[in-house]
C-alpha cells in the first residue's frame, strides 16, 4: 500500500512539472496554431534568472517575480523580433523559427549564466511530508498547486474574458478577427508574454526539484509537448490531464515493471491514444465553416 | 631535477641537440555542448598552464603555443579538428577528446599520422587494446567500480543494488561494474535506471528499498541525476551505505544534493578534491594544492577533477618533450611511454608499452562526505 502511494507521489511530482510546461504551450498555440518550441527555454530562464538574482542577494520571492517578468519581456521580444517579421509565413515556418529562437536562447544562457548546474532553496524547506508510509516533498505540493492554479486561471481566461475569446478568434481566422475589431498584433504580443511568464513560473517552481542548467530546456519542452499532445493541444484541461498522466504512467512502470521501459511505456500510451483520438483526449474538433 | 641536471651536463659537453623549434601543441576539447561541464575547466587549465610555462621560460627556452578547437563533444567535428591540427597547424602532439566519442575520432586520425595523443576521456576502450600513439590520463570506469567494490567488500556486505543514469557515462559504468562484480564475490540484487533529465527517482528507490537483502547502493551517473537520486534517498529515509561515482566528484555535488542528504555518501575521487586535507607527507599534496590554488585564482571558479585530467596530460606531455629534447613526434611518443613515477593531480603515472593509462587503483581515494565536506576513508 505504502509502495503504491510512493509510486503515485513520484508520478504526481513529475507529472506536475510536465503539466506546468504543457500549460505554457496552450496560449501561443491558441493564438496562432504555432507550437512554440522555445517554451522549454522559458522554463530554463525562469529557473536560471531566479538563481542568479537570488545569488546576487535578492530575497527569493522577489527573485522569482523578477525572473517571471524578465522572461515575459523576452517572450515579447521574441515575438517582435522573430515571429512578427515573418507574419504571413506558413505555420511550419513559424515553428521552425521558434526552434531557432530556442537554440539562440540556449546559447546566450550558456554565455550569461555559465555551464554549471544550479539550484536554489525549496520554498518550504526540504523536510519530507509523511503520509501512510510514503513521502512527498513540500516543493512538489508547490508545483502541483502551481499547475492547478495556472489551469484555473487559463480556463477562466479563455471562457470568461473578452480578451481570451479574442485570442481564440485570432487563431480561428486572423482576417475575420481583424474585421470585427480585434487588434491581432496585440493578441500575439500578449500571448507570447503570458506563455513566457507561465513557462518561467514553471521553472521557478520546479527548479528546487529538477535543478537547472542552460541545456535543460529541450527535455522540458519535449515532455511538456508530449503531455499537451496527449491531452489535446490548446486545451488547458488537456494539458493538465496529459502532463499528470505521463508522470503517473512513468512512475508506475518504473515501480511495477522496470525503469528501463518507463519512457517507452509513456510513449506507447501516447501513440495508442493519438491513434484512436487524433485530437488528443480533450482536443477541439476541427471546425471548418464554409 | 634529474632531467635538468642531465641536460645541463649534455649542454656543457656541447652534445645537446640543436635548439628546439617553437613547440606547437594541439587540443580539441568540448568547451561547449553537452560535455561543456567537463571541457570548460579543461580549456581554462591548458591556457593557464601554457601561460605559466612560457612565463617561466618555456621548455628548454622554447615557447609553447597552444592551438585549441572546440569540438562541442561531436565526434565528427573532433575528427575534422584533429585533421586540421595535424595538417594545417603542424602540431607535435594533441591533447583532448573530452568525451569518449570525440576521443575515438581523434585517436584514429592521430594513429594514422603517428602523432602522440593524450585523451581526457574515461572509457577503457581508448587504451585497451594499447595503440602506439594513444595515452590517457583519467581513471577508467572499471577502476571506479573496482574501488567501490573493494570498499563494500571490506565493510562485509555482499548484496548490492545499482541505480544508473541512461546517459553515456552512467550506462558505460553500469556495464563495467556488472563485468567485474563477480571478482569481488558480490551479488547484484537490483539494477534500476533513470533518464538523466528525470525529476524524481523515488519510484526506483522504493523498489530497491523493498528488494530483499540489499546492503549497499551504487549510483553511476553524472550531471543533475545523481544529486536528485541523493535527495530522493534522503526523502525516503534510506539508510543503506550509498556510493556515488567519480562522475560527481566536485563540491558542486554537495551543494546541489544538500549537505544533509549527502551526509555519509562515499565515492572514489582524486587527491585534487581533498588537497587541503591531505597529510603533509602525501606525494600528491604539493602538486594538487599548487594546481588548485592557481586555477581558482585564475578563473574564480572551484577546481574540478576534469580540469585535473587536462593538467596531468599537459604535465606528461611537457615532461616527455623536455626529456626527449626533440619535437619529433616519434621521440615524444617514446619519451611518454618511458614516463615513470610522474606525480600528477589524478595519480602517479608510470607508462609501459603494455599500459598507456599508467594509473592503478591506489590513485583513487575513497572519500566520504561528512558535514558538507570531503574526508578520506582510508
UniProtKB/TrEMBL annotation, chain A:
This is Branched-chain amino acid ABC transporter permease. Signal peptide: none annotated. It is a multi-pass membrane protein. One of its GO terms (cellular component) is plasma membrane. One of its GO terms (molecular function) is transmembrane transporter activity. CDD domains: TM_PBP1_LivH_like. Belongs to the binding-protein-dependent transport system permease family. LivHM subfamily. GO terms for biological process: amino acid transport. The keyword Cell membrane applies. Keywords: Amino-acid transport, Cell membrane, Membrane, Transmembrane, Transmembrane helix, Transport. The lineage of its organism: Bacteria, Pseudomonadati, Pseudomonadota, Alphaproteobacteria, Rhodobacterales. It holds the Pfam family BPD_transp_2. PANTHER family: ABC TRANSPORTER PERMEASE PROTEIN, BRANCHED-CHAIN AMINO ACID TRANSPORT SYSTEM PERMEASE PROTEIN LIVH. Coiled coil: none annotated. It is found in: Cell membrane. The chain crosses the membrane at residues 7-31, 51-77, 89-113, 140-158, 179-205, 211-231, 238-258, 264-282.
From TrEMBL, chain B:
The keyword Signal applies. Keywords: Amino-acid transport, Signal, Transport. Coiled coil: none annotated. GO terms for biological process: amino acid transport. The keyword Transport applies. It comes from the Bacteria. Transmembrane segments: none annotated. Residues 22-357 form the Leucine-binding protein domain. CDD domains: PBP1_ABC_RPA1789-like. Residues 1-21 form the signal peptide. It holds the Pfam family Peripla_BP_6. Belongs to the leucine-binding protein family. This is ABC transporter substrate-binding protein. The lineage of its organism: Bacteria, Pseudomonadati, Pseudomonadota, Alphaproteobacteria, Rhodobacterales.
Amino acid at each position: 500500500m505504502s509502495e503504491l502511494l510512493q509510486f503515485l507521489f513520484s508520478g504526481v511530482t513529475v507529472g506536475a512539472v510536465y503539466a506546468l510546461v504543457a500549460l505554457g504551450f496552450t496560449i501561443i498555440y491558441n493564438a496562432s496554431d504555432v507550437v512554440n518550441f522555445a517554451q522549454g527555454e522559458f522554463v530554463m530562464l525562469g529557473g536560471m534568472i531566479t538563481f542568479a538574482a537570488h545569488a546576487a542577494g535578492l530575497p527569493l520571492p522577489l527573485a522569482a517575480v523578477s525572473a517571471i517578468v524578465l522572461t515575459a519581456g523576452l517572450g515579447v521580444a521574441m515575438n517582435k523580433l522573430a515571429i512578427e517579421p515573418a507574419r504571413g509565413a506558413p505555420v511550419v515556418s513559424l515553428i521552425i523559427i521558434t526552434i531557432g529562437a530556442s537554440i539562440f536562447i540556449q546559447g546566450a544562457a550558456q554565455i550569461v549564466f555559465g555551464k554549471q548546474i544550479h539550484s536554489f532553496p525549496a520554498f518550504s524547506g526540504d523536510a519530507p511530508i509523511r503520509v501512510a508510509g510514503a513521502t512527498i516533498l513540500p516543493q512538489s505540493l508547490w508545483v502541483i498547486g502551481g499547475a492547478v492554479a495556472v489551469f484555473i486561471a487559463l480556463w477562466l481566461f479563455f471562457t470568461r474574458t473578452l480578451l481570451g475569446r479574442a485570442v481564440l478568434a485570432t487563431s480561428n481566422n486572423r482576417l475575420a478577427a481583424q474585421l470585427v475589431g480585434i487588434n491581432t498584433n496585440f493578441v500575439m504580443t500578449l500571448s507570447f508574454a503570458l506563455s513566457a511568464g507561465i513557462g518561467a513560473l514553471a521553472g521557478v517552481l520546479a527548479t528546487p526539484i529538477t535543478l537547472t542548467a542552460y541545456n535543460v530546456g529541450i527535455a522540458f519542452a519535449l515532455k511538456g509537448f508530449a503531455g499537451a499532445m496527449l491531452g489535446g493541444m490548446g486545451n488547458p484541461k488537456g494539458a493538465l490531464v496529459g502532463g499528470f498522466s505521463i508522470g503517473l504512467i512513468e512512475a508506475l512502470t518504473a515501480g511495477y515493471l522496470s525503469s528501463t521501459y518507463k519512457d517507452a511505456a509513456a510513449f506507447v500510451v501516447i501513440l495508442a491514444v493519438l491513434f484512436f483520438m487524433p485530437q488528443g483526449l480533450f482536443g477541439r474538433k476541427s471546425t471548418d465553416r464554409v | 631535477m634529474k632531467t635538468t641536471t642531465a641536460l645541463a651536463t649534455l649542454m656543457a659537453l656541447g652534445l645537446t641537440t640543436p635548439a628546439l623549434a617553437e613547440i606547437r601543441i594541439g587540443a580539441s576539447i568540448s568547451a561547449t555542448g553537452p560535455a561543456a561541464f567537463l571541457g570548460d575547466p579543461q580549456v581554462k587549465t591548458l591556457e593557464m598552464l601554457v601561460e605559466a610555462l612560457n612565463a617561466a621560460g618555456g621548455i628548454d627556452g622554447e615557447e609553447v603555443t597552444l592551438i585549441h578547437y572546440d569540438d562541442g563533444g561531436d565526434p565528427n567535428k573532433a575528427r575534422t579538428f584533429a585533421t586540421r591540427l595535424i595538417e594545417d597547424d603542424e602540431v607535435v602532439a594533441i591533447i583532448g577528446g573530452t568525451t569518449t566519442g570525440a576521443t575515438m575520432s581523434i585517436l584514429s586520425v592521430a594513429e594514422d599520422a603517428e602523432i602522440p595523443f593524450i585523451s581526457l576521456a574515461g572509457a577503457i576502450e581508448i587504451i585497451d587494446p594499447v595503440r602506439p600513439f594513444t595515452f590517457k590520463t583519467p581513471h577508467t570506469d572499471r577502476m571506479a567500480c573496482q574501488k567501490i567494490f573493494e570498499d563494500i567488500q571490506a565493510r562485509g556486505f555482499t548484496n548490492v543494488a545499482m541505480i544508473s543514469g541512461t546517459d553515456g557515462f552512467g550506462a558505460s559504468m553500469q556495464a563495467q561494474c556488472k563485468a567485474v562484480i563477480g571478482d569481488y564475490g558480490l551479488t547484484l540484487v537490483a539494477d534500476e535506471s533513470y533518464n538523466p533529465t528525470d525529476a524524481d527517482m523515488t519510484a526506483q528507490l522504493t523498489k530497491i528499498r523493498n528488494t530483499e537483502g540489499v546492503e549497499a547502493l551504487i549510483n553511476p551517473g553524472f550531471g543533475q541525476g545523481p544529486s536528485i537520486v541523493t535527495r530522493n534517498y534522503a526523502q525516503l529515509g534510506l539508510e543503506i551505505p550509498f556510493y556515488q561515482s567519480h562522475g560527481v566528484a566536485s563540491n558542486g555535488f554537495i551543494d546541489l544534493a544538500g549537505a544533509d542528504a549527502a551526509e555519509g555518501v562515499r565515492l572514489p575521487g582524486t587527491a585534487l578534491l581533498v588537497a587541503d586535507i591531505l597529510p603533509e607527507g602525501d606525494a600528491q599534496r604539493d602538486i594538487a594544492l599548487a594546481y588548485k590554488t592557481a586555477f581558482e585564482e585564475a578563473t574564480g571558479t572551484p577546481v574540478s577533477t576534469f580540469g585535473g585530467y587536462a593538467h596531468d596530460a599537459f604535465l606528461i606531455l611537457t615532461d616527455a618533450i623536455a626529456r626527449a629534447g626533440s619535437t619529433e613526434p616519434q621521440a615524444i611518443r617514446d619519451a611518454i611511454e618511458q614516463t615513470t613515477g610522474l606525480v600528477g593531480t589524478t595519480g602517479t603515472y608510470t607508462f609501459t608499452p603494455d599500459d598507456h593509462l599508467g594509473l592503478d587503483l591506489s590513485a583513487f581515494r575513497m572519500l566520504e562526505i561528512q558535514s558538507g565536506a570531503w574526508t578520506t576513508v582510508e
